[in-house]
Amino acid sequence: MTINSRKDNHIAVCLNKNVQSESTNGFEKYRLVHNALPETNFEDIKTETVFLNQKIAAPILISSITGGTESGNRINRSLLEAANTLNIPFAMGSMRILLEEDSHGIYDNPRKYAPSIPVLANVGAVQFNYGFSRDQCLRAIELIEANALILHLNPLQEVLQSSKNTNFSGLLKKIDYLCSNFPVPIIVKEVGWGISDVVAKNLIDAGVQIIDVAGAGGTSWAKVEAEISGTETAEQLASPFFSWGIPTAQCIEQIHARFPNISLIASGGITHGVDIWKALLLGAKMIGIAGPLLAPANEGPQAVVSFLEILVQQLRIAKFLSQTIVKEKDYD
Amino acid sequence: MTINSRKDNHIAVCLNKNVQSESTNGFEKYRLVHNALPETNFEDIKTETVFLNQKIAAPILISSITGGTESGNRINRSLLEAANTLNIPFAMGSMRILLEEDSHGIYDNPRKYAPSIPVLANVGAVQFNYGFSRDQCLRAIELIEANALILHLNPLQEVLQSSKNTNFSGLLKKIDYLCSNFPVPIIVKEVGWGISDVVAKNLIDAGVQIIDVAGAGGTSWAKVEAEISGTETAEQLASPFFSWGIPTAQCIEQIHARFPNISLIASGGITHGVDIWKALLLGAKMIGIAGPLLAPANEGPQAVVSFLEILVQQLRIAKFLSQTIVKEKDYD
Amino acid sequence: MTINSRKDNHIAVCLNKNVQSESTNGFEKYRLVHNALPETNFEDIKTETVFLNQKIAAPILISSITGGTESGNRINRSLLEAANTLNIPFAMGSMRILLEEDSHGIYDNPRKYAPSIPVLANVGAVQFNYGFSRDQCLRAIELIEANALILHLNPLQEVLQSSKNTNFSGLLKKIDYLCSNFPVPIIVKEVGWGISDVVAKNLIDAGVQIIDVAGAGGTSWAKVEAEISGTETAEQLASPFFSWGIPTAQCIEQIHARFPNISLIASGGITHGVDIWKALLLGAKMIGIAGPLLAPANEGPQAVVSFLEILVQQLRIAKFLSQTIVKEKDYD
Amino acid sequence: MTINSRKDNHIAVCLNKNVQSESTNGFEKYRLVHNALPETNFEDIKTETVFLNQKIAAPILISSITGGTESGNRINRSLLEAANTLNIPFAMGSMRILLEEDSHGIYDNPRKYAPSIPVLANVGAVQFNYGFSRDQCLRAIELIEANALILHLNPLQEVLQSSKNTNFSGLLKKIDYLCSNFPVPIIVKEVGWGISDVVAKNLIDAGVQIIDVAGAGGTSWAKVEAEISGTETAEQLASPFFSWGIPTAQCIEQIHARFPNISLIASGGITHGVDIWKALLLGAKMIGIAGPLLAPANEGPQAVVSFLEILVQQLRIAKFLSQTIVKEKDYD
Ligand SMILES: Cc1cc2nc3c(=O)[nH]c(=O)nc-3n(C[C@H](O)[C@H](O)[C@H](O)COP(=O)(O)O)c2cc1C
Ligand SMILES: Cc1cc2nc3c(=O)[nH]c(=O)nc-3n(C[C@H](O)[C@H](O)[C@H](O)COP(=O)(O)O)c2cc1C
Ligand SMILES: Cc1cc2nc3c(=O)[nH]c(=O)nc-3n(C[C@H](O)[C@H](O)[C@H](O)COP(=O)(O)O)c2cc1C
Ligand SMILES: Cc1cc2nc3c(=O)[nH]c(=O)nc-3n(C[C@H](O)[C@H](O)[C@H](O)COP(=O)(O)O)c2cc1C
User: Fold this and answer.
1) How many B-C residue pairs are in contact by the CB < 8 A criterion?
2) Could you tell me which residue ranges the FMN-dependent dehydrogenase domain spans (chains A, B, C, D) (predicted)?
3) Which residue is closest in CA terms to ligand 1's atom 10?
4) Residues of C in contact with D166 (CB under 8 A)
């Protein structure tokens, strides 16, 4: 299976099958204490923030899904146009195929649809063990005028999928090397199983400036890969991993406790604005969202805009109504 | 939509739809320790108390529902006549429409049905940011010979409903101003999401004499407003707030711990006399009840009387059988 | 309704309706630690014990159900014959009717069926406030050659049932008076809502020698009384009390912790031998069982014997396999 | 019923009925912390280990099921051939029948199918109280060239099954005697209810070198025996024991905490490689698996190989992805 058709498969499976993690996202363990007397005008509750030195409308990142080469490209376009309309950042899916193959024919430059927002390049960190170089990273940045480069860590996905790139040795050193004097910030993310505080420490020591935890509780790639392979054996192999990973809220709380100054993106299983506000109060600077955007993106840019506007409105309401987060178990 | 037809809608939705909060009222976290040997004559278990300097038959307040202007008025009358029959206090719903519009034609003076019980006036505190004045509060009192004035805080309801009065800035100062030399006590309440200890502190500092927590666990106005607007978007926007708020029992326990001298009314999700007794043992002086009265009120005053008599009897039984409340988690 | 027909009603309801408490019996909070190497011959695991100075085959009491005057009497006889066959003690149900009315015609002396086992007389303690005297207690003992007198405390049942004897004032003093120089030991029990450590203290101070906790988790008399009255109002009144009471295991643990020397009977919701062994390890000397015996008793004495033999065998197995009980929450 | 036909019955019941314990295996109380950056090549994740001084492919033992005399023998052969193919150890089921009866006609020497792997002999420790001798243990070892001797402790099974050998007195001394100068290591195991730390201490003091906890959470022999006897009485007797026992994970954690140097085998309810890795991180050296192998073994050796290969692969993945185990309750 080529990377390209695998990508199409991924999207189809995520749209049509239950690929929801059997772990929660962890935010249910926290409660926002209601403030009946906000002493604010709701109109003054803003969501604007600065990300990658650029003003954006809300601390919401469209997380990596499409790499710009997918056949059809409807989803890619919807997401980009919506991001541009709303002025929120957009992260590319893995650009490996773009950089490795002669794919100019199918390449769809995101800047065509999203000239002004922050756009983030994306490659799998493990590719550095499979011939991928610093120069290709630079080319990825250049190609799309990227404002940052995301390296994704996906060891569980790699071991479950058919074309396995599973040599994760020595990556930290290579990430460290990449971080020195790279023209844009380096972000490291998972793909749905979370970053522990220990991994965060290593990444920070290596010079990573932003961590996107991409924790458990949303899209489960163990489920996606089991669905894609379709065999009973693959399903059986993957099934104990359907609840694998560190819930998103725990990642944020634990990393923020140890490294209060590192920029954190909370992603993995975020579906509404109340959890966004919880994530921000727990220490995240931004949140990311991928799987829940697929269905609206398949409809068109307006559906994505509407969906995200609801999230922004929920975030504003939650922010209006609460400034304090407590752990459920401490609260009772 | 005019205030009036909105009010009718509210009542219809509360009567016919599931508007129950997805939070519990919190009383399930407490246990009444059974006393097998009460050493009392059950006949001597009384529920009489004093509220607003008046003797009443039980510490039960009919919470704010109707404002005296509703078309039909059946519910209004049922509740008033029942309150008068039982000698328990009655709180008006928001009187804003009465005070703002020329509504003398439809105005139904509560004193016609309830000459002798404590009747409480009610206005939304946020109205002070929308032209409402101290004088109108005085007129509200005068109009119904009110024994107290309730100010309700409903920030979440306001942001979810169509005609939003969502400027909640500077209200504390205005409440403070109102409290000085006002002829009757000022009560502040929520409408189903609770008062935190921090909000309680601010209200007490401003001179508020009675706090009605109106916590989570009963009628959920997020559900009511979603039902009323009827659109999928409104439902999606409101849904993460279906479990919002501080459960009633937690409000009472936390405020009472910090401010043992403030008069507390426990309301929000109270449906039987065992929870009434728990509320009183946790520090409340009175309890309030709104949503569960709608169905009997729709039937007629006798149904309300019967319903409330059961609550009073349950309260007497619980009081007869237990004088000690413990936290479930400490008990085991 | 006469006492007699009420009694028949009680039995019919307990046989045919769901009268199970909505509380658990509390034993699920304790775990018996398995001993894989018991170092014993299972044949040597005995259940014999001494109760009321008499050797009995197992620490199992047939709890108070029938008072010897019931029409039909099938259940009464089954239980008595089974108790006699197995050599376990039998407690009469309330003997008030026997003692107050001219009921010699229907009186069925238990000693006819159970000449040699301990038989316990039973009256409601509250009857001391309704004309019942020490002399009648003595006559009760004499009538059936009772080995002990049980006083039951049932304040919740009394307030819920139609013919209410609900004056529970001053009972402690009367119990104290009865205890001095009474020819047989006085046992005090509840009827399914438990004895707290505070009540236990008062009873012990009054001279009571044995306490039968009769805690929550088995037959719920709130449900029985609601079923019997059959009206919606009675059901509504009683329903918050369907989970009322102190679970049996908690009663035992708490009373035993404070009063290690008092003889305790664990009853209320005991249905198998594993819970019997838990009860004994928690400090009980005996267990009692009522509701679960009705169905076999309705079949005949052999069904009761078979049922109880299973319990005894389960008790022997549990005793063989575990000598240590721990709290679940401490264990993990 | 002869031992032989009982054995067949056991297998049929385990294959066709729900014999799953109502206790969990306890591993759900522990979480493997995900490591997004393993810094290893997945290809380098090995499962080889040494067991009984022999190199084996994975720390997985095929637990005792068949004794080599079963009619049909299909399951026996499948398991042996699979173990040999995979190079993992195989434990015989109880060899008592082989050693007591003239069963040479039906005896199927495991070494025919599994010449090179570790094979473990198995007898019930309780047999030492029923005429079984040290010499017979030596003959068991010799007969199959066993690398170790497993003694199983099954007091609950014995009391529930029809032909009861239930004298468990004085076994520790006999185990102690057997352990001195026995030619192969002695392993003691349960059969699905676990070994407590106290029992472990006694066994270690007696000279036992390896303990297989065989805890609760998998095959429940209380259910098996109830199914086999088929009567309602047997079902009623056994049912409170359907959740009996110490969960496997708790056994491992508690014994390892007190005796960090004893070799532990984790078995009972292990069905996938994630729990295998948890068991190893909690202190086990090996894991054992019985019930879940029956269905594949009934199909044939290849099905067993495939099933176990999945477990090994899951173990490799879990080991690749996590090196840290935490208690859920400490983690939040
Ligand atoms: C269809 C699809 C494709 C994805 N492709 C990528 C990718 O190429 N690179 C990447 O870093 N993450 C990729 N992800 C992972 C997401 O960025 C995100 O981390 C993960 O889905 C968890 O977020 P969610 O619960 O909001 O979906 C993809 C997710 C989906 C649903
Ligand atoms: C139909 C309806 C109308 C209400 N109108 C008012 C109102 O006008 N003013 C107010 O302070 N609260 C109003 N409330 C809120 C109640 O007073 C109460 O705080 C809330 O419903 C929670 O109590 P409950 O769980 O017993 O319903 C209304 C409630 C209902 C059900
Ligand atoms: C039909 C029936 C009649 C009872 N009558 C009496 C009684 O007369 N006196 C008494 O002390 N308890 C009486 N009880 C209560 C029982 O003795 C016992 O305390 C209670 O049912 C809880 O035990 P259980 O869960 O095993 O049923 C009766 C119970 C039943 C089911
Ligand atoms: C059909 C069957 C037969 C068994 N026979 C034996 C036996 O002869 N000796 C023994 O020590 N354990 C025997 N066991 C118990 C297993 O070895 C194991 O300890 C128990 O089943 C728990 O592991 P599981 O949950 O993986 O099944 C048997 C188990 C099964 C399912």
Assistant:
1) 90
2) 172-317
3) A64
4) 41-43
In chain D, the percentage of residues whose pLDDT exceeds 90 is 86
Write the pLDDT tens digit of every residue in C202-221: 999 999 999 999 999 999 99
Q: Which chains touch D (3 or more CB pairs under 8 A)?
A: A, C
What string of DSSP letters covers B221-252?
HHHHHHHHH--HHHHHHHGGGTT-S-BHHHHH
For chain D, the domain total comes to 1
Encode pLDDT of A221-233 as tens digits.
Answer: 999 999 999 999 9
Residue A1: per-residue pLDDT: 46
Report the gap between the CA of D118 and the closest CA in chain C (Å): 26
Using CA atoms, how far residue C296 sits from B2, B16, C78, D289, in Å, is: 67, 47, 8, 42
Give the pLDDT band of residue A199 (cuts 50, 70, 90): very high
Contact (CB<8Å) C39/D194? no
Does C302 contact D at CB distance below 8 Å? no
Residues of C in contact with B34 (CB under 8 A): 156, 193-194, 196, 216, 244-246
Buried b (16+ CB within 10 A) or exposed e, B53-68: eeebbbbbbbbbbbbb
Cβ within 8 Å, pair A33-B196: yes
- At residue B29, the 3 state secondary structure works out as helix
Q: What is the ipTM of this complex?
A: 0.96
* DSSP H or E run through A120: strand A119-124
**What is the interface size between A and B, counted as CB pairs within 8 Å?**
91
Report d(CA A117, CA B119) in Å as an integer: 58
Q: Which of A167, A199, A236 sits opposite D42 (nearest CB)?
A: A167
Say yes or no: CB of residue A93 within 6 Å of ligand 1: yes
Q: Which residue has the tokens 């959890």?
A: A275
Q: Which residues pair with residue D197 across a beta bridge?
A: none
Domain that holds residue C112: 3-331
CB contact at 8 A, A313 and B160: no
Scanning C109-238, the segments in alpha helix (DSSP H) are: 134-144, 155-160, 171-179, 197-205, 221-229, 232-238
Residue D255 at interface with chain C, using a CB cutoff of 8 Å: no
CATH number at residue A221: 3.20.20.70
Give C110's Cβ-side CA count (13 Å radius). Answer: 37
Residue of B196, B250, B329 lying closest to A35 (CB–CB): B196
* 3-state class (DSSP) for residue A11: helix
Subunit partners of chain A (3 or more CB pairs within 8 A)? B, D
Q: What share of chain C is helix, strand, coil (3-state, %, to 5)?
A: 45, 15, 40
Which atom of ligand 4 is the closest one to the Cα of D91? 17
Distance CA A146, CA A185 (A): 10
Q: D275 touching A, CB under 8 A?
A: yes
Nearest to D328 by CA among D287, D285, D278, D284: D278
Q: Which of A34-38, A64-68, A170-174, A299-303 has the lowest mean pLDDT?
A: A64-68
Q: Measure the CA angle with vertex B223, ends B222 and B226; round to 5°.
A: 85
Q: Would you say the CB of residue A192 lies under 6 angstroms from ligand 1? A: yes
Judged by a CB distance cut-off of 8 A, whether residue C329 touches chain D is no
Question: Exposed, middle or buried by CB within 10 Å (0-12, 13-18, 19+), for C18?
Answer: exposed
Whether C326 and chain D come into contact, CB under 8 Å, resolves to no
Give the confidence band of C108 by pLDDT, cuts at 50, 70, 90.
confident
Q: How far is the CA of D201 from the centre of ligand 4 (A)?
A: 23
The two beta strands, C286-289 and C325-327, are: unpaired
Q: How many residues does chain A have?
A: 332
| A63 vs A265: CA distance, rounded Å | 10
Distance CA D11, CA B103 (A): 83
Q: Is C207 on the interface with B (CB under 8 A)?
A: no
